[in-house]
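Need residues for this backbone.
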């Protein structure tokens, strides 16, 4: 392409770019929205504004409706403070169903992270044993039944398992075994 052709092509693009405008509009919820269409479209209902952080998904709406219906049947009314399960969780996640604990998505993620730690080169035998113990506790639901202070203790003991002192690692592993046996 010659220099003249490039200048000519650039001259043709400048008016096209000048026509591309950005409009600052106020959505129906009062929030500022930037759009490439005129603000009048928002007044006619053509511009739909749904912020992700405040709008419930269809799945969340269905779960909430089912909770409300179950509460109404039980004569309880609305269930205050009810929480929705994480995306990808089954309705029974975090509960014991048929004698088995149903893993939540965060449980599954923790197990995956622990499996990575289990295969890490240079990990001590105590750390590998403790990692297997924690994975077993998560799968059985023991970990979910632990209060937050016990979980903090577990995390502290797990940190001690990375020590270079073999006696400290052994003591931490024994303390972890005792901690899990209480739940």
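Answer:
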């Amino acid at each position: 392409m010659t220099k003249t052709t490039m200048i000519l092509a650039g001259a043709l693009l400048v008016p096209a770019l000048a026509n591309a405008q950005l409009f600052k509009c106020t959505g129906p919820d009062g929030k500022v929205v930037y759009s490439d269409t005129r603000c009048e479209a928002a007044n006619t209902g053509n511009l739909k504004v749904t912020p992700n952080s405040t709008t419930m998904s269809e799945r969340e709406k269905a779960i909430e409706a089912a909770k409300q219906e179950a509460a109404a049947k039980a004569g309880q009314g609305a269930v205050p403070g009810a929480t929705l399960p994480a995306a990808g969780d089954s309705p029974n996640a975090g509960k014991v169903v048929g004698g088995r604990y149903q893993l939540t998505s965060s449980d599954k993620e923790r197990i995956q992270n622990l499996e990575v730690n289990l295969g890490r080169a240079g990990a001590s035998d105590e750390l590998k044993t403790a990692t297997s113990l924690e994975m077993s506790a998560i799968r059985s639901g023991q970990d979910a039944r632990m209060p937050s202070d016990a979980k903090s203790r577990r995390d502290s003991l797990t940190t001690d398992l990375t020590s270079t002192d073999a006696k400290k690692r052994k003591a931490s592993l024994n303390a972890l075994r005792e901690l899990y046996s209480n739940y």
